[in-house]
Amino acid sequence: MLHLICETSTSAFLYYNYEEKTIRTIANWDYFFDFSVESMEDFSKFYGYVEEKYVVPLREALFIEKRGMESTTIDVKMKDGRMWVEVEITIVYDDAGRSADKIIRFKDVTKFNAQNDELTYMAYYDLLTGLYNRNYFVRLFGEQVHRAKEEKKEAAVMFIDLDDFRKMSDELGIIIGDEIVQIFGQYLSEFAEDDIVVSHFNGDIFCIGIYDPYGSKSVASVYARIS
Length: 227
Known about the structure:
Elements: H1 2-7, E1 12-17, E2 22-27, H2 29-32, H3 55-62, E3 71-77, E4 84-93, E5 99-108, H4 110-124, H5 134-151, E6 155-161, H6 165-172, H7 174-189, E7 196-202, E8 205-211, H8 219-226
Antiparallel strand pairs: 1-2, 1-5, 3-4, 4-5, 6-8, 7-8
Helix pairs in contact: 6-7
């Protein structure tokens, strides 16, 4: 029954018995990997399938028994750049506290992660221009002001609007108006850096927050570059 449940799952499973040193791969193994696992040494093959930054976290997760842990879960991105895989590792210990069994589950969570990425993007960015949205700008500029108080510096804010935008939008249409906003937003994005935050509030209103506005970062300098 357990084997049947695994086989009808969309996940893939790997089972390892420490005493017998036997390994079995179950269910949709071929969906995730094109190699077989015959011994614990073959675990190194997993590292070649994930993006470089996930290699070390995955290695640590696959061998949690070295730290006495019972289970952990990690999401890794595959090298193809498209698939996200949730890797769940569970260790079963015997009465003496020795590792007895290891079960690893691989689950495709690409769709779920894509939805989360989209929601995260919508929370921080303006969909029309790709700049920070109004809410996130208020948060970031608030952090600039707080930092300026602590470091005895200044923070400046600039509001920018496009002259006669409403007239142009009425005469040329909403689509053309959106294109104008997009083009100007792309232009303003070139001014963004560590101490300069650029955002699109709404309509033709843009806002720039500047921490320590002196020299090339002064309000006058930024305004001159924009105009």
